[in-house]
Write a structure and sequence with these properties.
The structure holds 2 protein chains of 2 kinds. By secondary structure, chain A is mainly alpha-helical. Chain A folds into 2 domains: 196 residues, no CATH class; 70 residues, no CATH class. Helix content of chain A is 74%, strand content 3%. In chain A, a hairpin with a 2-residue loop joins strand 1 and strand 2. The two termini of chain A are 25 Å apart. Chain B is α/β, with parallel strands linked by helices. Chain B has 2 domains: 223 residues, Rossmann fold (3-Layer(aba) Sandwich), CATH 3.40.50.300; 189 residues, P-loop containing nucleotide triphosphate hydrolases (Rossmann fold, 3-Layer(aba) Sandwich). In chain B, the strands form 4 sheets. In chain B, strands 6-7-8-3-9-10 form a 6-stranded mixed sheet, with helices on both faces. In chain B, a hairpin with an 8-residue loop joins strand 1 and strand 2. Classes of the chains: A mainly alpha, B alpha/beta. Chains A and B meet through helix 6 and helix 7 of A and helix 2, helix 3, helix 4, helix 5 and strand 16 of B.
Chain lengths: 293, 566
């Protein structure tokens, strides 16, 4: 999702929240299937073929596992198909299991897409525009943790090269770990003094600090945000008319096909496939431009 | 126009009788590139830090500092933050944030600059320093040289008028360091930036600068143009740090002007000594080390850090003879440090075997190999210490080695005497200078009484004088019968101490030999002295050798030629 990732973090965050909320909390088979298909489209663009194979190996068994678990433990429903160990296995429970599997796998796909697009710096940026101080602190923590780890590793190695702490006993190892930790803590205190000087040298503490980010809110961001909010509103309006009410138990209710329901399905389908469309559109556009050169 | 004026400045640290600075007066004009040098502890860092109020040390200060006709005490903090940039020696400790772009913007954020201006300034500096390719990376993934460049660039985004640098290349390898210094030269030339640089690596920077200030014991000893300083330093104890051309010139007692670059050094030799063309350093007559007595023998080593990562060692063969100093050279990322770790048994190759003293490394039980056999000094001497003082740290090691209480003190005294650190034993390891830390770390290693000493970059961050001490120390250890393998970027140092040198490239050793043959074959990877003298004295690689050959004293060279004691 190279093109979709380029949108402003606020827009992508709103997008993911909308899609994930609908697919998790609207318990409706059509909506679930749309979310799943959209998620598959999205992840298929961002994974390599090797990853696709390993994803299939993971998600297909998971899908069946979830679908089969429900009828084994839940015996609600009006239509028993057969009896197992004296318990009824019902049609409703099987369908509900499949529905839950569709929902869960779909949400997992979207979560994967989220983690791909919403990287830490985007999250920090959004967070930082609410609480600027905290975002600097978080950024410093993210800088410090890997550095401490590296130093600890170096101390460990240096000591091992002298023959300290290479014995196998657990007691010795725990003790050596403690000593390395205390040395690293001492080192980091020393380090912090210098870092704070470097901050001061570059004017930290002067009045009126601003918060810089690489992100710009462009026209396209506004447009996409408008589309997302519009689709969201349409679906919510349809929902209030009861177009998306659906129940598995005690008996599966029919899926509605009145105009309101159809509008909701179409809106959600457009929403779920939006990043995929953007991606394909940009690719086509690029190929078109290149063919003209 | 004078940008900076220091008038009769004296400074002493709290709880100290000594004056760190004693009546220093100096002027720096706009656009000048000033080099401040001197031995460790001469007060050069103190002076530099006093010029930047935010990082100035606490203590008693007398005298005045004027920046741009304002006394530093009256300077608006906003002006001092923007106008005076400061870069210190530790690349890691200066970086505040986790992303390169954020680090570049940090100073401007502090000043409250608006986003479009920050974007422009950051973009401009990133492209000037060639940072755009790693602009979005995390700061932790950068190399030491990149980190230091980032520190410089993130100061430059604030558009300072005066740049202060405190040994910025101390933690860098020589090649990265010379790139960094060339960048400073470029900044001075392109932007007319006034630079005050404290540095001990003089070979390359000397010809670039306008003024050299040499400090000793808290006062300015010399303050003049570089060639004049080099001329008046003839016979001075700090002259060892001067560029090779100047050292050869001083050793030969020639007429001024004193040459500072390889090119002018070559011209000097061509003019005065072309009649001696072809004179050679004689092969040392006795091949004293026993070639078959191999204390380290490793064949066909293959190693990678992870299944999915490329090989670091690719069919590496290495043989080290008993009682020799074996120098391993090579660029960054060629596998030198990895090789040392494999030889020390800290990493295990997936193919090939390492024999230490004829016995497989895996055949040594637990830590038997680290007892009286082999010890490794890693690149970061600060990582060697765990305790609050050097002495406590030594006790700690001896305790784990199960040395009796009575013997501990005498062993520590012995080692301290051998390497000359008696006065440092009670200091906190982090309070020592780079050279002192390196020596104390070496002392700790010697307590294990190893036969084989493996050293990773023993000259990193130490000045010319400490380097000479280190060379003498290694030679003394060798005459005690120890075998030393050292990995270094420092070509001069390797040429000076090694019995044999090897060049690592692409995971294996591509050439090795005695220093005089080895370095005279290389045209780039060789000493400055060799580059100066190669047309006339083909195999001279040290300043002393060039001087001796020019004077026709080959016999003394021969006497100095290292003999290996078995």
């Amino acid at each position: 999702m190279r093109y979709f990732s380029r949108f402003h973090p606020l827009v992508t965050l709103v997008y993911f929240l909308t899609v994930i909320i609908f697919s998790m909390f609207v318990n409706h088979p059509v909506m679930g299937i749309i979310a799943l298909l959209g998620g598959i489209c999205f992840t298929s663009v961002m994974t390599s073929s090797a990853e696709k194979v390993s994803d299939l190996k993971f998600y297909i068994p998971l899908f069946f596992l979830i679908s089969l678990t429900n009828p084994l433990f839940s015996h609600n429903g009006k239509t028993p198909l057969f009896f197992m160990n004296g318990n009824a296995v019902t049609l409703e429970a099987i369908i509900y299991g499949v529905g839950i599997a569709v929902m869960l796998v779909g949400v997992m796909m979207w979560a994967k897409a989220y983690s791909f697009v919403m990287t830490t710096d985007k999250f920090l940026y959004l967070f930082g525009s609410i609480v600027p101080q905290l975002s600097l602190v978080l950024s410093m923590v993210l800088r410090y943790v890997p550095m401490l780890k590296r130093q600890a590793k170096q101390v460990q190695k240096s000591q091992k090269g002298l023959g300290m702490y290479s014995s196998d006993s657990y007691f010795d190892r725990a003790k050596s770990g403690m000593r390395v930790m205390s040395a690293v803590v001492g080192w980091s205190l020393e380090h912090v003094v210098e870092t704070s000087k470097s901050m001061k040298a570059r004017g930290y503490g002067l009045k009126g600090r601003t918060n810089y980010s690489n992100f710009r809110f462009r026209k396209e961001d506004g447009l996409l945000l408008g589309i997302i909010v519009g689709l969201f509103a349409m679906i919510v309006v349809c929902m209030t008319t009861g177009a998306l009410t659906f129940a598995y138990y005690p008996e599966i209710t029919p899926i509605k096909t009145n105009p309101m329901a159809l509008i909701a399905y179409i809106c959600f389908a457009v929403l779920a496939i939006l990043p995929f469309l953007i991606e394909i559109g940009e690719l086509l556009r690029w190929n078109y431009y290149r063919s003209k050169i | 126009m004078e940008l900076l004026q220091v008038k009769n400045l004296s400074f002493s640290y709290p709880n100290s009788q000594d004056q760190a600075l004693d009546g220093v007066s100096l002027n720096v004009e706009q656009g000048q590139f000033v080099l401040v040098c001197g031995a460790s502890g001469c007060g050069k860092t103190t002076l530099l830090r006093l010029l930047k109020p935010e990082v100035a040390p606490f203590g008693e200060l007398k005298g005045d500092i004027w920046y741009d006709e304002t006394s530093l005490t009256d300077l608006d903090p906003r002006v001092s933050a923007t106008d005076i940039g400061f870069v210190s020696q530790n690349p890691d400790a200066q970086i505040v944030t986790d992303k390169v772009w954020h680090e570049l913007a940090f100073g401007l954020e502090s000043l409250g600059t608006d986003t479009p201006t920050i974007r422009r300034r950051v973009g401009e500096m990133a492209s000037y320093f060639g940072i755009q390719n790693w602009y979005h990376q995390s700061t932790d993934s950068l190399s030491g040289g990149q980190k230091q460049l980032l520190n410089l660039a993130s100061v430059m985004t604030m558009q300072p008028k005066l740049l202060l640098l405190d040994e910025p290349t101390a933690q860098l390898d020589p090649i990265t360091a010379s790139e960094f210094l060339a960048t400073l030269h470029k900044l001075n030339r392109d932007l007319g930036l006034t630079i005050l640089l404290v540095e001990h690596r003089l070979e390359e920077i000397f010809p670039y600068v306008d003024v050299v200030m040499m400090m000793s014991a808290g006062h300015l000893e010399f303050n003049d143009e570089p060639d004049k300083v080099a001329t008046s330093m003839k016979g001075h104890p700090l002259a060892a740090g001067l560029p090779s051309a100047a050292r050869i010139w001083a050793g030969l007692d020639l007429e001024p002007p004193c040459p500072l670059t390889v090119r002018s050094g070559r011209d000097m030799l061509r003019v005065s000594f072309s009649h001696l063309q072809g004179e050679r350093i004689p092969e040392s007559p006795t091949q004293s080390s026993d070639e078959s007595d191999e204390v380290i023998a490793a064949a066909d080593l293959w190693f990678r850090y992870d299944k999915n990562l490329p090989d670091v060692l690719k069919g590496m063969d290495i043989k080290v003879r008993r009682g020799e100093i074996f120098g391993i050279l090579g660029g960054n990322g060629t596998g030198k440090t990895t090789l040392l770790n494999v030889l020390a048994g800290l990493e295990r190759p997936y193919k090939g075997k390492v024999l230490i003293d004829g016995k497989k490394i895996s055949a040594y039980k637990r830590n038997a190999i680290y007892r009286n056999k082999l010890a490794l000094l890693t690149q970061n001497p600060a990582a060697m210490f765990l305790k609050k003082s050097v002495r406590e740290d030594y006790y700690d090691l001896l305790k784990t080695m199960e040395v009796g209480k009575e013997e501990q003190d005498s062993q520590i005294e012995d080692v301290a005497k051998t390497i000359g650190i008696e006065s440092l034993l009670d200091s906190h390891p982090f309070d020592l200078s780079g050279g002192e830390q390196q020596k104390c770390a070496l002392g700790k290693l010697l307590l294990t009484q190893p036969e084989i000493v493996l050293l990773d970059e023993p000259t990193k961050g130490i000045d010319a004088f400490a380097k000479i001490m280190m060379a003498e120390l290694l030679q003394a250890l060798r005459s005690d019968g120890k075998t030393i393998v050292l990995v270094t970027h420092d070509v001069e140092f390797a040429a000076q101490v090694s019995d044999r040198c090897a060049l690592v490239f692409d995971g294996s050793i591509i050439s090795q030999g005695r220093p005089n043959d080895f370095f005279s074959d290389n045209s780039f990877y060789t000493t400055a002295a060799s580059r100066i003298a190669r047309d006339i004295f083909p195999n001279a690689i040290l300043c002393e050798e060039v001087i001796a050959l020019s004077k026709g004293e080959t016999s003394t060279v021969q006497a100095q030629e290292k003999t290996v004691q078995v």
